[in-house]
Write a structure and sequence with these properties.
This protein is of the alpha+beta class and 162 residues long. The chain has 3 helices and 6 strands, in the order H-E-H-E-E-E-E-H-E. The protein has 2 domains: 76 residues, no CATH class; 57 residues, no CATH class. The strands form 2 sheets. Strands 1-3-2 form a 3-stranded antiparallel beta sheet, with no helix packed on it. A 3-stranded antiparallel beta sheet has the order 5-4-6, covered by helices on one side.
């Protein structure tokens, strides 16, 4: 069994940029970054929607807890201060238009994103560094049968490592 205080200390030492100093009355260590897993239930069949609800229940049975929410056809899993039984590893956002950038382009904000539905029935969320990159990649993926179902613009809140 993992010693929780030793595990937390190791995570703090390995990722000091993501964790608070732990100087709160409870002695807990809170992350400086978190994420919301937003599941668009409108894109799913009733059977798939039920599977999402069951997955949340199964994770709780396994000891993984986090806040959840539901509204506007979306199910939110809040991977924030409420997360227990696991920890969140924050990674940089990469521009998915690989043909436009040698290597991996990571230092950009705002983030242009697209949710694609693919012929197999799966959905993917891809990030881009510009509207030009997004449009070029959307056109290329459309030829392969990918359908852009949602698009948007957001702000990168966590700076990628240097």
């Amino acid at each position: 069994m993992i010693n929780e205080s030793g595990f937390e200390q190791r995570v703090v030492e390995e990722h000091p940029e993501l964790w608070g100093d732990g100087n709160c009355s409870s002695g807990d260590i809170f992350p400086r970054a978190w994420a919301t897993l937003r599941i668009d239930m409108r894109l799913m069949t009733p059977e798939q929607q039920e599977a999402v609800w069951q997955a949340s229940a199964l994770l709780r049975q396994a000891g993984l807890w986090f806040d959840t929410g539901f509204g506007c056809g979306q199910r939110d899993w809040e991977l924030d201060w409420s997360l227990s039984g696991a920890f969140l590893a924050v990674k940089p956002i990469y521009c998915m238009n690989h043909g436009n950038h040698p290597g991996r382009h990571t230092s950009f904000s705002p983030v242009y994103w697209t949710t694609y539905a693919v012929p197999t029935g799966r959905c993917f969320n891809y990030a881009y560094c510009s509207e030009i990159c997004r449009r070029a990649d959307m056109d290329e993926r459309a030829v392969a049968g990918w359908k852009a179902v949602l698009t948007g613009v957001g702000v990168a809140l966590v700076e990628p490592p240097v």
